[in-house]
């Protein structure tokens, strides 16, 4: 789980880093200085991220940080980021059932619907004379009116 402070200039990044070094709380600095308005309202919290979903320069630094530690300014194509790792989960971490219940239900429902549709199509094909045409065999022009 990452939090970040995003700023556009090196000077602003240095100012944010100095505030952190002086002991200010990361969330407070993010709320005050981050130019990412959405995450700054949450103290910079970005939620859980897979390293595959991060800018490679941020992912490389995040992978080396321990939980609770923060980085110096990291330059990206957008500006400068200071990141803090607030939690870490290993891939395949077991989640509580209530958190995945709806996902499981939706997956099972979709699978059931797919099987039922396949059975229905098989039954309809068995009861019907199905003629399949190659799209290349179809006439290229539509019939004119009156024909």
UniProtKB/TrEMBL annotation:
The keyword Signal applies. Keywords: Isomerase, Rotamase, Signal. It catalyses: [protein]-peptidylproline (omega=180) = [protein]-peptidylproline (omega=0). The keyword Isomerase applies. One of its GO terms (molecular function) is peptidyl-prolyl cis-trans isomerase activity. It is an enzyme of class 5 (isomerase). SUPFAM superfamilies: FKBP-like (SSF54534). Its EC number is 5.2.1.8. InterPro entries: PPIase_dom_sf, PPIase_PpiC, PPIase_PpiC_CS, PrsA_foldase. Residues 1-87 form the PpiC domain. It holds the Pfam family Rotamase. Transmembrane segments: none annotated. Residues 128-147 are annotated as: Disordered. This is peptidylprolyl isomerase. The lineage of its organism: unclassified sequences, metagenomes, ecological metagenomes.
